[in-house]
Write a structure and sequence with these properties.
With 197 residues, the protein is α+β, with helices and mostly antiparallel strands. It has seven helices and nine strands, in the order H-H-H-H-E-E-E-E-H-E-H-E-E-H-E-E. Strands 2, 3, 5, 6, 7, 8 and 9 form a seven-stranded mixed sheet that branches. A hairpin with a 4-residue loop joins strand 8 and strand 9. Helix 5 packs across helix 7. The N terminus is likely disordered.
Length: 197
C-alpha cells in the first residue's frame, strides 16, 4: 500500500512540474501581420517574456510592474482567472487615463477582462479558450490588457452607444501613437497593447 501511495505521489509531482508549453515551439509561431505591431511594441519595455509566476514576481520586486486597481474612475477589473493584475507603468497609467476619459464622456465605466499573462497562464487559458494564442502574446510582456465591449456598468449586454464611445477613446489614443488595438469578435473585447511612447 505504501508503495502505491508513494508511486502516485511521485507521478503527481512529476506531472505537476512539467511545463504545459514548449518554449521553442511557442517562439516559432509567427504572428499575423495585424498582430505583429502589438508584439513588437510590447517587447520595447525591457521585460523578458513572462514564462511563469516567478518571472512576474521578479519584475514586481524590481518595481517594473505596477498593480492594477480593482476599481478606478471609468473602469472595473473583473475577477481574473488566467491573468495577473499587473502592468508596466506606462500601460497602467494609460489604462487609467483612458478610463477617466471614458467616464468623462459617458458617466459610465468599462470592464477590464484580462491583463498580464505568463506562458503558463496562456497555456491553461488555451484549454478553455481555443482563441488564446499558441504563440507569444503582448500580454506576456505586461504591456497589454483587454476591455470588454459587452459589459458596461456591470451590465452584460450589447450597448452600441457605449461601445462607440469606447472605440472613440481607443481611436484617440491610437491616433496619438500610444496604443494599438484589435477588436476581438469571439471574445467580445478590445485587445489593447500600449506602446513605449
Amino acid at each position: 500500500m505504501k508503495f502505491l501511495v508513494l508511486s502516485f505521489l511521485l507521478c503527481f509531482s512529476f506531472f505537476k512540474s512539467q511545463k504545459c508549453y514548449d518554449l521553442k515551439t511557442v517562439l516559432k509561431v509567427e504572428p499575423t501581420a495585424l498582430y505583429r505591431p502589438h508584439l513588437l511594441a510590447s517587447q520595447n519595455f525591457g521585460v523578458d517574456i513572462l514564462e511563469n509566476e516567478k518571472t512576474v514576481d521578479k519584475y514586481i520586486a524590481r518595481g517594473k510592474f505596477q498593480k492594477v486597481k480593482k476599481k478606478s474612475r471609468g473602469y472595473r477589473l473583473q475577477t481574473l482567472q488566467h491573468s495577473r493584475p499587473y502592468l508596466v507603468k506606462k500601460a497602467r497609467t494609460l489604462l487609467e487615463k483612458m478610463a477617466a476619459k471614458f467616464a468623462t464622456d459617458t458617466k459610465s465605466f468599462f470592464v477590464v477582462s484580462s491583463v498580464t499573462r505568463t506562458l503558463e497562464d496562456q497555456c491553461r487559458l488555451r484549454k478553455v479558450n481555443s482563441n488564446a494564442s499558441l504563440g507569444i502574446s503582448s500580454h506576456n510582456y505586461g504591456a497589454a490588457f483587454d476591455i470588454s465591449y459587452v459589459r458596461f456598468d456591470h451590465v452584460l449586454k450589447v450597448n452600441t452607444k457605449l461601445e462607440k464611445a469606447l472605440e472613440k477613446v481607443l481611436d484617440y489614443y491610437k491616433n496619438q501613437g500610444k496604443i494599438f488595438y484589435i477588436k476581438e469578435k469571439q471574445q467580445s473585447c478590445y485587445h489593447v497593447t500600449v506602446r513605449n511612447f
